[in-house]
Design goal:
It is globular, with a radius of gyration of 21 Å. The protein contains 13 helices and 13 strands. By secondary structure, it is α/β, with parallel strands linked by helices. Helix 1 links the parallel strand 1 and strand 2. 37% of the residues lie in helices and 18% in strands. The protein binds 3-phosphoglyceric acid. The site of 3-phosphoglyceric acid has 11 residues, from loops.
C-alpha cells in the first residue's frame, strides 16, 4: 500500500481523494529533526513551506517516490536533486494566485487608509481619542487612478494586474521573461482585455505609486536602498513573495527617512521569527505569511495536490 505523509496539513477534500484512491494518508506532524528516520516508511511526502526537504533527507529515504508542495514556492525543497533521483516533485502554482493577489490589495487599501495603525491605536485611545484619531487619519488616499508597479508577471502578478485594472489603476510591469501579456479583467460577462507590456525595472521604481513583488526567492535582495531612493516619496511597497527579496534594514531606514510612505509585508527574512522592528513599525502593515491561506485556495490546493499525486503514484 502506498503511504503518504502530509506534514504541513491538507484540506479534508484532498485527504479524502487520496484515501479514495487507496492510499494511506498520515497527517501527523513529524518534527523536522525526526524526518530523517521516520520518513523512510513513506512513499511520498506532502508539505507547504514549513517542512524542508533537502538533499540529506532525500538521501536518507530511498523509498521516496514523490514530494508534493501545496503552494507555489519550492525554495524549501531541493527540486533538481530530487528529480535527478527519479522522484516526482509537484506543486500547485495556480491554486492560490487570486488569494495572494487579494491579500496584496488588502495591504494597499489598509495602508492608504491607516487601518493597520488605527486598529492598534483605537482600543487604547478609547472614546476620548476618537475625534483626535479622526483628524490624525484624515489624509488617506484612493487607489483609483494611481499606478501599480508589478515586479514579476507570472500567475500572481497577472492576477494583481487584473484586480488593479478593475479598480481603475494604471499598470506598470517589469519581467525580463515577458515582453507583453494579455490581462483580462472584470466579471466574465463584461470581461475586457488589455495588453500590458513590460517596462524597465528603473522605470517601474520611479513611476509607481504602489510596487508589489512577485518573483521567486533570490540569493540577494532585489529591493535595497538604491531602489528605495528611486521610488516616489509616497510610494507603498508590498511583499507577499519571499522575505529576503527586500533588504529589511534598508526598508526601515527608507520609511524612517520618508523615502517611501509604507510597506505591506506578508513574508519576512527571519520567518518564523520576524524582526520585531518590522512588526511594530507604524508604517508597516503585517500578516503572518497568509497570502495563500484562504478557504478557496486551501481547497484548490488540496484538490490539485491529490489529483497530481494520484496521477504519479498510481
Ligand atoms: C507559496 O509559496 O505558495 C506561498 O508562499 C504560501 O506558503 P504556505 O504554503 O506556507 O502558505
Amino acid at each position: 500500500m502506498v503511504k503518504i505523509l502530509v506534514n504541513d496539513g491538507i484540506e479534508p477534500v484532498g485527504k479524502e481523494m487520496l484515501e479514495a484512491a487507496g492510499f494511506i494518508v498520515d497527517t501527523q506532524k513529524i518534527p523536522q529533526e525526526e524526518l530523517m528516520i521516520r520518513l523512510r516508511e513513506y512513499d511520498a511526502i506532502c508539505v507547504r513551506s514549513a517542512t524542508k526537504v533537502r538533499k540529506e533527507l532525500i538521501d536518507a529515504c530511498p523509498n521516496l517516490k514523490a514530494i508534493a508542495r501545496g503552494g507555489v514556492g519550492m525554495d524549501n525543497i531541493d527540486v533538481d536533486y530530487a528529480k535527478a533521483r527519479g522522484i516526482h516533485v509537484i506543486n500547485t502554482p495556480a491554486a492560490s494566485s487570486r488569494s495572494v493577489a487579494e491579500l496584496c490589495f488588502a495591504h494597499m487599501l489598509g495602508l492608504t487608509r491607516f487601518l493597520n495603525i488605527s486598529n492598534r491605536e483605537m482600543p487604547s485611545e478609547g472614546k476620548k481619542g476618537f475625534e483626535a484619531l479622526k483628524k490624525k487619519y484624515a489624509s488617506g488616499t484612493e487607489l483609483f487612478g494611481k499606478t501599480l508597479g508589478i515586479i514579476g508577471l507570472g500567475r500572481i502578478g497577472k492576477e494583481l494586474a487584473s484586480i488593479g485594472l478593475g479598480m481603475g489603476m494604471n499598470i506598470l510591469a517589469y519581467d525580463p521573461m515577458v515582453h507583453q501579456t494579455e490581462i483580462f479583467f472584470g466579471p466574465e460577462k463584461y470581461s475586457t482585455k488589455v495588453n500590458v507590456a513590460s517596462t524597465s525595472f528603473q522605470d517601474l521604481l520611479i513611476n509607481s505609486d504602489f510596487i508589489s513583488i512577485h518573483v521567486p526567492s533570490l540569493d540577494k535582495p532585489l529591493i535595497t536602498m538604491a531602489a528605495f531612493k528611486m521610488m516616489k516619496n509616497d510610494a507603498i511597497i508590498i511583499n507577499a513573495s519571499r522575505g529576503g527579496l527586500i533588504d529589511e534594514h534598508d526598508l526601515i531606514e527608507a520609511l524612517d527617512n520618508q523615502l517611501i510612505r509604507g510597506a505591506g509585508l506578508d513574508v519576512f527574512a527571519g520567518e518564523p521569527m520576524p524582526d520585531e522592528r518590522l512588526l511594530n513599525h507604524p508604517k508597516i502593515s503585517v500578516t503572518p505569511h497568509t497570502g495563500a491561506s484562504t478557504l478557496e485556495a486551501q481547497n484548490n490546493i488540496g484538490k490539485e495536490l491529490a489529483e497530481q499525486l494520484i496521477n504519479v503514484l498510481k
